[in-house]
Records
---
Amino acid sequence: MSYVSLLRSPHAARLLLGTLVGRLPSAMAAVAIPLALRDAGAPYGFIGLAVGAFAIAAAVAGPLLGRLVDHIGQPLVLLGTAVLAGCGFVVIAAAVDQQAGVLVGAAIAGAATPPLEPCLRALWPEIVDAEELESAYALDSASQQLIFVGGPLIVAGCVSVASPVGALWAAALLGLTGVLVVATAAPARAWRAPARQADWLGPMRSRSLVVLLISLTGVGVAIGTLNVVVVAYAEEHRLPGGAPTLLTLNAFGALIGGLVYGAVHRWPVPPARRTLLLAVGLAVSYALLCLLPAPPLMACLMLLTGLFLAPTLTVSFVLVGELAPTGTVTEAFAWLVTLMTSGSALGSAAVGLVLEHRGPTWAAACGVLGLTMSVLILLAGQSRLDSDQRTETKASAVPAA
């Protein structure tokens, strides 16, 4: 089945498009909040605090919202969070010159970020055939790069037409629109998580899943490192468009890598081993970035890192879906988002300090360090991941009595 055929599957295109639109506010917030606050005369220290409040609130609340979805279904949680997040953006827009109001609005908007990403990944097994599931995850992983390109572009358009505050209103509207598209679709309304054991650990009672999720934190560190390193690189080298051009190339590489990976329906290597091999490839590509070559070669390296990123995430999605204990799949995917986001924040913070004291080469090495940690964790847990993945796959293949 081609990607065109996959998108022709009932509800597939609608759910994917709605999810992409509904997730745009998260990408917009990282640009719109600083611009709106700076336009109101806020100091950079407070701007960093406000953006941090949004990110931390989203990271903390994500798994809790995922668990709520597993308990009561998708529509109520998605619609409720969309309204609350929209109110958070409106509060920031209305109180842009009042620090307390901005912090409250940022915390609400972040904490109420609709869990569209984990919800979609929980729905894929319901709307595509089992043999096409990995292709669906690949399309999902590749297409999310459009969010990180489209979000800032929408903010730029709002600023040129209206003002930075207008971008906050647009974020609220887009979030609600995307959620309405997803939450009113038949698969989202019908989806229910299987009955689960009552314990507070949820998906974290699967040791194999914990190993996988912790390893992906290192991938987040690398992503956060890259976001800062390219800014420093663009200051030292003349290239059209500066740092955004390099990040766009990285996103384009991820888009291509994900689509190419998903076009292969049968891989001779099991998912656990595939994750390890792709993580090694990603680590090697990031190691090459430490050379900080001339812009033409740097552009090629940005494409290369993207080519490995999306397939790594895709096969990780497969494993998360298979390793998550019964009734916890949405929360498991939410933990993946939270840990990668936390890793990205950690990478960005660490690389800033390294840039100040050691220079860009050592800063780029922070990404390699994060990915080396990922590879070592995957290597140490390889036998457990492989055996547990085979066990879960066989169990899911047994018809219910």
Note: Residues 394-401 have pLDDT under 50 and may be disordered.
---
Amino acid sequence: MRDAVIVEAVRSPIGRRKGGLADVHPVDLSATVLTALLDRAGIEPGAVDDVVWGCVGQVGEQAGNIARNAVLASGWPESVPGTTIERQCGSSQQAVHFAAAGIISGQYDIAVAGGVESMTRIPMGSARRVGLGDPNSDAIRRRYEGVEFNQIRGAETLAGRYELSRTWLDEYSLRSHQRAAQAVDDGRFAGEIVPVTLPDGTKFEFDEGIRRATTLDKLGQLDPVLDEDGRVTAGNASQISDGAAALLMMSGERARRLGLTPLARVHTATVIGDDPVTMLAGPIPATARVLDRAGLTLDDIGAFEVNEAFASVVGAWLRATGASEDRVNSLGGAIALGHPLGGSGARLTTTLVHHMRAEGIRYGLQTMCEGGGMANATIFESVAAR
């Protein structure tokens, strides 16, 4: 049977909103990681059958099928196609799923999966502000009469449901920054980050959102976002960011013929729908489903990447699954590194497979919540450990 393996994975440094990547067009940011990906692998661009690219805010500079535009901006042959998909925050994790499915089915020999988001240049929610109507139709409003679709409200609901105090959320967020800072100091991201050349010719090379000087006291001084007695603050939520990531995928047999050593193979992939009001609890049933389909248990997994959309998302997942926090987001997460929506899934995969290789971990699991009450979950297996 054909399988799907990842032979190379790269990402840009993650820029803060209005930070180091603010002047970089998202098409050019995408082209940067695409070019670096194939350069590292030594693959000719014309061999790529398709580029499957995640992007959430598909308006303005990110409209018009940014995947295809990124291919053209990369200077790749015009024969290389590209398609852009949107599954909210899980867009580029879904891109990995689609690319894997195309490879396993024989539709692709070589594919690139990834994604991008410039939240500076295309602010979150831009597609809802262009004056073309409400995406929630009358039928949806009737079904959920009187209900507010609000991710921050969902994060508050999870915190209450799983008895996660404001202190716990802030303590977790502080650990995210500390872990990310330690990862930088230890050179753990050096193998995955590719520098971005800015319009002025300088290089942007480091994740910009890590706050080394933050403390629990500083986090505790931030006001709640919604209610006066709320628990969710800007400090225990993911950062608005700019970034891109890309993965080179093919069958294991093709990798062997090309003399390439895979980082990991896609073992099992799933996506699930859940309550769209709470919205953020999907990673819990998604994890259960992907483990069941893989024939594995939580104890088989050596590393987890659970997207830190909010600290309460990870906290709820930890409480529901019983997983050890030591194995979850051990290099920091979106609270410290940032959450460039359409690029985050591929960023998490990139970090996870490099971490698995560095630590000799056989199985890694990635999951993330998504708008509308969905969640992707993926199990990767180290090829060397098979």
Note: The chain has twelve helices and twelve strands.
---
Amino acid sequence: MGSGAAAGRRWWAWGLALLVIGVAAAPLVRYWLTNPGDQRLVDLDVYRTGGESVLRGLPVYEAITPAPQLLPFTYPPIAALLAVPLAALSWPAAQWVWTIGIFACLAVTTWLGFRDLVARPGRPAWAVPLLFAGVTAAFVYLMPIRDQVRFGQVDILLVMLCLADCVARRPWWPRGLLIGLATAVKLTPGVFLVYLLITGFGRDGRPEQRRAFFMAAFTAALLTVAPFLVIPRDAAGFWFSALLDPERLGANAATTNQSIRGMLLRLYLPEWLTSALWLVLAGAVAWYGFRHARRALLVGDRMAAVALTGLMAVLVSPVAWIHHLAWLVVVIAALAARERPWVPVAVWLYYVVPIPWWGVALRAAEIPVLSPVAGRVVQDAFGLGAAGLVWLLARRSRDARDAVAGPAPAAAVPAAASPPSSADPPRPPRPAGDRS
């Protein structure tokens, strides 16, 4: 009787949790799904255009969405094939299905990230869903998540796939499969191939990471090759033409591009200098970030390892729009597990307000010295913040490593020499490399 009542309370609490998330999401849904038709979920329209082109046998990478957007399909060919079911839906139905899917992916991502924090031993069962709902509702208002709904974007789905592949406790799929799928769909999750590579091989490599790397690489390769059998002209057009044209993605110097390259492009330096600086800075950030992602995994902080790798997808990519920062859900989860509560709250607040657009307004004010300098820094706020988060997460992984290693042993005081006893058998020589 008691267990049945407890189960009833849990279901009641989960129902209330869904209601809380729904109430938090309702204003965004109402606002963006009643937006003028030509401004509504424009990226979802891009996906459907790719799927429609496949259904009609039209060139995928020559199609554009209707005016005034006129947006081309920019994703790999497998994404066009996967978008066919969206094209089969009516436009109103596709909007609702996709928007509900965004919040479902956000909820799953939040649960994976905060499961251990909200479901701590000793906490009442009814409190777990309510805490989870509160955290999810807060994430709804992160600017990168709001942009998921505004544009009908796919990023939170990719975040969910990569996070689940890395932290699910007993997955029913082979690890690496979801990372391979995400990489094939949008390329930028390919940073997780690097993560699996550096954590699966080498002196401290883990066999499970190595197996996941092979599965991810195989899945990504299979889904890359498959379109050549179905839509060969489009597959060749993407890999040998469309992929090499970054302007297809939009104005790379726009405020919404918060990658290292985007920030450099807004300095309007000579093109060769911008490219050189980008290669140097991106290489340095990648080395630092992946190094500490590996270190975080070795000390058991898998969430920080995933968060660091996700930030690499934003900073090192040639183009990273604000909605690509959906990785903040994982970043805040990693910080909440180790930092004082005010730190993740401050990060959340920083990415709730539209700080980069304040920089645009400051530059438009044309205040001498202040506008061109401070305005540019504020305009780059989200990208600079992401770089700061890399440092913060790396610092925590370094501290955790030092805590695991413990203090260095004190120098041993040599004992007085004594003659060997015939009762003591001679010790075998220590094998080379044995540091025990």
Note: Residues 407-436 have pLDDT under 50 and may be disordered.
